[in-house]
Amino acid sequence: MASFLAALDLTDTGARTNEDIFTGPSQWSPLGRVFGGQVLAQSLLAAIRTTEEDRVVHSMHGYFLRPGDVKLPITFSVDRIHDGRSFSTRRTQAYQNGQPILSMIASFQTQDDGLDHQIEMPADLADPESLPSTAEVLAGVDHQVAKFWAEERPFDLRHLESPIYLSVDGNRVAHQSIWMRAIGRLPDDPNLHRAALAYASDYSILEPIQRRHGISWGTPGIRVASLDHGMWWHRFARVDEWLLYVQESPSASGGRGLSVGRIYTRDGILVASVAQEGMVRVPHAD
């Protein structure tokens, strides 16, 4: 958790051209690539630093351009594209070695009253306390990535269907649901929780594609990479309390798959919606 909070504590370099410049560290991971959710969260926080406090992020759209290197820090440049009466727009570019690894645009809005409805949360679900944690599922697995997922990730993910870390059990369906929560209490800053939700939203969003085709994370030769990520914040929620992530994949073709998701509080409030397209390649995939 300390590494997670340190990664989200960006440094304002004080440099000003036509953009605002921030820097942030990269969290270590066993594969040597920066976790995409980390760069999303950092890019969002950089944009937030340039926006008035009364304007809250409601959407972002990002493209992953290159894999990040965990051995290098990341530089974030924020372009203050537009400030209107109610909305502000920011573009954040994340760089390593002078090359962009992520390009993101986010929109912010002053709080306003308006129409209000939501899709209801699925009913009759198992409580998160009744499901095994990631650490319990992967206990005793002698593999560097498995140990990292079990012991080092700042979020606990609990699958309502069988986890697909080592195998895909049960029906091959293009949908799943996951309870998730930060491991440990986070500061009360609402923007930190919004950024942390973006971070966690990238963990499992492509898994419905894999589940549909019986492809576990342990499948030999599997190659999975996020291509883009869209997110819409509807209502506030703390990420250190249990959230339900309902996910499904409407399509996969051409070495790519699309997944969409909805995130709810435990009492059924729709917090956010997510969409991501990813590269999913595996030898002899059907």
Give an account of the 3D structure:
The chain has 286 residues and is α+β, with helices and mostly antiparallel strands. It folds into 2 domains: 1-111, Thiol Ester Dehydrase, Chain A (Roll); 130-286, Roll (Thiol Ester Dehydrase, Chain A). 17% of the residues lie in helices and 38% in strands. The protein contains 6 helices and 12 strands. It has a 12-stranded antiparallel sheet. The chain is globular.
List the helices and strands and how they pair.
Elements: H1 2-7, E1 11-16, E2 20-24, H2 36-48, E3 55-64, E4 74-83, E5 87-96, E6 99-110, H3 134-137, H4 144-151, E7 155-159, E8 175-182, H5 190-201, H6 207-212, E9 223-233, E10 243-253, E11 256-265, E12 270-281
Antiparallel strand pairs: 1-2, 2-4, 3-6, 3-9, 4-5, 5-6, 7-8, 8-10, 9-12, 10-11, 11-12
Helix pairs in contact: 2-5
How far apart are the first and last residues' alpha carbons, in Å?
A: 39 Å
Radius of gyration: 19 Å
* Overall CATH architecture of the largest domain: Roll
| Share in β-strands | 35-45%
- Poorly predicted segments: none
The helix-and-strand class reads alpha+beta
At CATH level 3, the topology of the largest domain is Thiol Ester Dehydrase, Chain A
CATH superfamily annotation of the largest domain? Hotdog Thioesterase
Broad CATH class of the largest domain:
Alpha Beta
User: What kind of sheet is the major sheet?
Assistant: 12 strands, antiparallel
**Mean pLDDT over the residues:** 94
InterPro entries: Acyl-CoA_hotdog, Acyl_CoA_thio, HotDog_dom_sf, TesB_ACOT8-like_N, TesB_C
GO molecular function: fatty acyl-CoA hydrolase activity
Protein name: Acyl-CoA thioesterase 2
Keywords: Hydrolase, Lipid metabolism
